[in-house]
């Protein structure tokens, strides 16, 4: 019985690395959606105690949607069989994830200064 060389061939290194990046984006963005929702809940408690409204919870909701978009795109990239589509989805998910990370830092600064100023 001869082994099937096509099935036994190792994945190219770039495909393996792309798959790893996609998995990391998927897990990290899903976790960050949960973090954003938790902070929104905490902010709502602070807002109700201080009787002041902050825009920080609205910004976090937008941030949460960015992470969700990144999560869904990376999941789609993991599920697709088309290599070209996989790379395009992965790149888009990566860009959205990085934008969401920067937006998280901006939100953290805004929330910190808004709460300490009031």
SSE layout and pairing:
Elements: H1 5-8, H2 13-50, H3 56-79, H4 83-117
Q: Which structural class matches the secondary elements?
A: mainly alpha
Approximate shape:
elongated
Instruction: Calculate the mean pLDDT score and round it.
Output: 80
How many strands, what sense, and barrel or not for the largest sheet? none
Number of strands: 0
Q: What does the radius of gyration come to?
A: 20 Å
Count of the domains: 1
Approximately how much helix is present in the residues? over 70%
Residue runs with pLDDT of under 50 for 5 or more positions: 4-8
- Helix count from the secondary structure assignment: 4
Distance between the termini: 77 Å
Oligomer: single chain
Strand content: under 5%
Q: What is the chain-wise order of helices and strands?
A: HHHH
């Amino acid at each position: 019985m001869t082994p099937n060389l096509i099935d036994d061939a190792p994945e190219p290194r770039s495909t393996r690395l792309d798959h790893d990046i996609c998995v990391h984006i998927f897990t990290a963005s899903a976790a960050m959606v949960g973090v954003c929702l938790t902070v929104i809940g905490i902010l709502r408690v602070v807002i109700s105690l201080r009787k002041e409204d902050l825009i920080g919870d609205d910004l976090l909701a937008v941030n949460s949607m960015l992470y969700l978009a990144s999560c869904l795109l990376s999941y789609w990239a993991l599920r697709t069989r088309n290599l070209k589509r996989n790379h395009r989805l992965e790149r888009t998910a990566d860009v959205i994830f990085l934008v969401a990370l920067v937006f998280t830092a901006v939100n953290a600064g805004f929330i910190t200064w808004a709460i300490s100023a009031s």
